[in-house]
Amino acid sequence: xxxxxxIGYEINEKTCQISFCNDQQIEPDTMEVDADxxxxxxxxxxxxxxWAYGKEARRLSTIKEGxxxxxxxxxxxxxxxxxxxxxxxxxxxxxxxxxxxxxQSFPVIDGIVFSVPELxxxxxxxxxGIAVRMGIDKQKIFIQDYKESFCNYLFYQPKELWxxxxxxxxxxxxxxxxxxxxxxxxxxxGGKTTFVTVDEVASAHMKELAAVYPVLNExxxxxxxxxxxxxxxxxxDKRIVSSVFLTGEGFENNWYPKSLRVLCNGRRAFIGNNLYxxxxxxxxxxxxFMHIEDPVYLSESKLTDQITVNMRVNGxxxxxxxxxxxxxxxxxxxxxxxxxxxxxDIELHVESLIQxxxxxxVIPMDRFPKRSEYSMRIQxxxxxxxxxxxxxxxxxxxxGEFFLPTDFHEEKIIHLGGNDGKFSSLx
Length: 427
Prior knowledge:
- Helix content is 22%, strand content 37%.
- The protein has helices spanning 55-63, 72-77, 91-102, 121-133, 146-155, 208-212, 218-236, 257-263, 275-289, and strands at residues 5-11, 15-22, 25-30, 40-41, 44-47, 50-53, 67-69, 81-84, 87-90, 109-116, 141-145, 165-171, 175-183, 195-205, 241-247, 268-271, 296-297, 305-313, 316-323, 334-340, 346-352, 357-363, 376-386, 389-396, 409-415.
- The longest helix has 19 residues, at 218-236.
- It is globular, with a radius of gyration of 24 Å.
């Protein structure tokens, strides 16, 4: 087990939020900025030789002292440079400085998951690069979107809350979006694993919300409440919903009493603004300390093929996933060192959820040196060339002072089926 912290780091264009736990404490806490306020403004600033971030940087902006920078994510992705006086800063350097300063309370980080509104490969590479420069093990760095954070948050709640569908309503100052977590059809993967997904099922722009937030206008509030009530009824139509979660600054004023009665009719409802960072923290815990995850979240951007090899892990023999369904292909490059019980060929199982097939691939070991049982130490490496092509390399690592490493290695190209637009067939 690790000795450091497990971090869930929600980040968007305006704010960030940090939840944390460790190997002894699974239930995350969320870092408070002020009493009952978890949102850290995504602003960095400098006054003379002193850097400031978050609330202190916003204060510099308010009093127009020094210089401050906002829109750090957008500017970093665009490769912008920011000039102040005779100094020039790359936006990605400023974003990295912000992340480091916000995490200075956690000197040792065993795993981190960034949670973002919408995930792209470019954004994943940006955040992963920042975490690597902080000295975090690259195999313990993951990025996910808000939908996956919601899903992983629910996995650690009582089962009755997601026995059937579970709804998430997100509200900012003029728009409400509704998401639904649902189980995919039973029997996938041999029926040993539960698979779920999260769909965006509806959205609505509500001009009344601009007047409701932050000052409560009673007439506009009643109009917004009535519209939200109809919106909810449309979302819940013919669905069995176990629980409802409300998040976002738009729900901070109590403008929706009629809608709340509809939400709570036969189901449990919760409101809060640290769901995404807590969900990311739960994901970080799962990825850091669990060998095989169950349940598994799937989406159109996730792998629906799994590659396993027969191993004994912690005394238990299993088909261990070296490529897991539910992971992203660009996060699935890994290495393992294993001891072989014998030096026969290595058998791989490739299982497809989309096709419902299981095939066997073999990596021959006849060119490797012959050694006695448990003195053959090899490295297994997975390297994705693209989203459907995985190269697996097996390399002789020697065995201490008894057997020096050799140049012997074998490679195997595994072609995966991918989704090919057939993800809906899993419903």
